[in-house]
Design a protein that fits this description.
314 residues; mainly beta; Leucine-rich repeat, LRR (right-handed beta-alpha superhelix); 2 domains; 13-stranded parallel β-sheet; 12% strand
């Protein structure tokens, strides 16, 4: 299908419109804005679609907008900010999307924004901090994204932030310490990330911290011990990490600690024995690790210990 008839706007009761895989569809008729009952609009894999009509801002009932694989889409219309019922926007694999409109901040009901694989996206607008209902923000493999706006700290409902393979990301804004609902932070293979935010100790709800493959990360802040809710800490393949701070023993909720292939890690702090609920400890391929602290015998609930390929362990 190459085009929709203008008369589609007369379907006043239409709630679901699925145009997925209409790879020859280049544009939508302006009359699409007349679909006053439309709740779900699926345009996934409309790879020739270059733009959305301004009239899309008239879809007052729209809750879900799916644009995955719209590889010719370069921008969203400013009018998207008028979609007051919108809860989910999926923009995965929009390879030519370079920016989001400032008006995105007007989407006060938006709960999920997925921008995975938007490889030309260089920045997020400051207005993103106005998304008061946003719970999950996905930025996997946004390889040109260099920084996050300070306003991200205003996302009071944000629970999950996914940033794996953001290859140019060097640091996180200190304002992220204000995210009181924050539960999961994924930074896997952010190769230029040299340090964690200094305010990380303020993330009282953080349960999952994934830093696998952060090969420029040299140390963890002492304040990491204040993450009282942290259950899972993944530091696998942090090849420049030489030691863990003694404060690691203060992580009273920590259940899983992954340190495999931390090739410069030479020892573990004695405080490790204080991790009373630790169930899994992965130290495989820690090639410079020479010994384990005696205190490891205090880990009474430890179920899994992987020491394979620790060639210097005595």
């Amino acid at each position: 299908m190459q085009e929709l008839p203008t008369s589609i706007g007369q379907l006043s009761a239409l709630q679901n419109l699925d145009l997925s895989s209409c790879s020859k569809l280049q544009e939508l008729p302006t009359s699409i804005g007349q679909l006053s009952a439309l709740q779900n609009f699926n345009l996934n894999l409309c790879s020739s679609l270059q733009e959305l009509p301004t009239s899309i801002g008239q879809l007052n009932a729209l809750q879900n907008l799916y644009l995955w694989g719209c590889s010719s889409l370069q921008e969203l219309p400013t009018s998207i900010g008028r979609l007051k019922a919108l809860q989910n926007v999926i923009l995965v694999d929009c390879l030519n999307l370079q920016r989001l409109p400032t008006s995105i901040g007007q989407l006060t009901t938006l709960q999920k924004l997925n921008l995975n694989d938007c490889s030309k996206l260089q920045e997020l607008p400051i207005s993103i901090g106005q998304l008061s209902a946003l719970q999950s923000l996905f930025l996997w493999r946004c390889s040109k994204l260099q920084e996050l706006p300070t306003s991200i700290g205003q996302l009071s409902a944000l629970q999950n932030l996914y940033l794996p393979n953001c290859l140019k990301l060097q640091e996180l804004p200190t304002s992220m310490g204000q995210l009181n609902a924050f539960q999961t932070l994924q930074l896997n293979y952010c190769l230029k990330l040299k340090q964690l935010l200094k305010s990380i100790s303020q993330l009282n709800a953080l349960q999952n911290l994934h830093l696998e493959g952060c090969s420029s990360l040299q140390e963890l802040p002492t304040s990491i011990g204040q993450l009282s809710a942290l259950q899972n800490l993944d530091l696998s393949s942090c090849s420049k990490l030489q030691e863990l701070p003694p404060s690691i023993g203060q992580l009273n909720a920590l259940q899983n600690l992954y340190l495999s292939s931390c090739s410069k890690l030479q020892e573990l702090p004695t405080s490790m024995g204080q991790l009373n609920v630790l169930k899994s400890l992965d130290l495989s391929s820690c090639s410079k690790l020479q010994e384990l602290p005696t205190s490891i015998g205090q880990l009474n609930v430890l179920q899994s210990l992987d020491l394979s390929n620790c060639s210097k362990l005595q």
